């Protein structure tokens, strides 16, 4: 699988703490290698690092004082997920054809204009308001099918079951 | 498209306000007709009803004092989304073959045992911890492909664009 990273824009620590945590955990579970947060938030970083510590994988989370610089200095293909963008199903083949590693940008409520301008693709998962978590999951699933089935090497792992909750702890 | 509904279990108003709002908006945007919340939360209901008022569609949100009764008295096929379940890709054809309308159950951190017992399918979108918002989006997308492209009849609608934010207001 290609490398992909996520840049989370406009994170407001009090309001967005749990949504940003879900964005980060979705990024990890669907195969991203890193997420950048536009504002420092030690609680989000701690929650995500605890999951990595228990469940494994090679995923990093860091805050950046300058998200615009992260985007403008990145040599990855920039795909901004926004309800205002073009329908993903009209663009997914083009994105795959580019054959490049991807930096996804996901915003909180309203992103600054530079995000639209710097992005190679402004892409919508439908044009209704819903969730950056849902948008990231669908976009990653379309670009990296079944990546959520990746096995990690963690101390903890789930034993899939039709009927109950079961985990293996190899620590 | 079949009817589907969502039951949100274990909603804790302070902690889960925004995640539950994202679950509800994802349910609406991906084609569900209704969401039940396991605990009353007027702020979540207000946020979701404002979106329905502006963007249209026929989606309702209500709280229920007894989520177990909603599930046990439902005649819909019950699909519980959980990281402990069986991989969705091994079950999606079976679920489609059932040809029934679906009640999705999505929990907060830990759901009571009755959810596993009452559900017809306990299904995982990968077995890593991530997000009930991501899980619902992927499950709905697999069962109702492209349902997120449904057009609503709202006063507000987005004009999809490769470069900028644009809305039509027909109110």
From TrEMBL, chains A, B:
SUPFAM superfamilies: alpha/beta knot (SSF75217). It catalyses: cytidine(56) in tRNA + S-adenosyl-L-methionine = 2'-O-methylcytidine(56) in tRNA + S-adenosyl-L-homocysteine + H(+). It is found in: Cytoplasm. Gene3D superfamilies: 3.40.1280.10. Its main location: cytoplasm. Its EC number is 2.1.1.206. S-adenosyl-L-methionine binds at residues 81, 107-111, 125-132. One of its GO terms (molecular function) is tRNA (cytidine(56)-2'-O)-methyltransferase activity. GO terms for cellular component: cytoplasm. Keywords: Cytoplasm, Methyltransferase, S-adenosyl-L-methionine, Transferase, tRNA processing. The keyword Nucleotidyltransferase does not apply. GO terms for biological process: tRNA nucleoside ribose methylation. Specifically catalyzes the AdoMet-dependent 2'-O-ribose methylation of cytidine at position 56 in tRNAs. Homodimer. Belongs to the aTrm56 family. This is tRNA (cytidine(56)-2'-O)-methyltransferase. The lineage of its organism: Archaea, Methanobacteriati, Thermoplasmatota, Thermoplasmata, Candidatus Thermoprofundales.
């Amino acid at each position: 699988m290609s490398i992909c990273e996520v840049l989370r824009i406009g994170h407001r620590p009090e309001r967005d703490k749990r949504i940003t945590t879900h964005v980060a955990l979705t990024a990890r579970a669907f195969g991203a290698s890193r997420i950048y947060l536009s504002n420092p938030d030690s609680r989000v970083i701690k929650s995500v690092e605890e999951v990595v510590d228990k469940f494994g994988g090679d995923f990093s989370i860091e805050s950046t004082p300058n998200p615009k610089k992260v985007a403008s200095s990145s040599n990855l293909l920039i795909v901004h997920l926004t309800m205002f963008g073009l329908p993903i199903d009209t663009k997914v083949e083009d994105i795959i054809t580019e054959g490049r590693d991807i930096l996804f940008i996901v915003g909180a409520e309203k992103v600054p204009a530079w995000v639209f301008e710097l992005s190679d693709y402004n892409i919508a998962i439908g044009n209704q308001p819903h969730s950056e978590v849902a948008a990231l999951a669908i976009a990653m699933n379309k670009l990296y099918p079944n990546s959520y089935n990746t096995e990690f090497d963690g101390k903890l792992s789930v034993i899939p079951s039709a009927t109950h909750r079961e985990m293996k702890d190899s620590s």
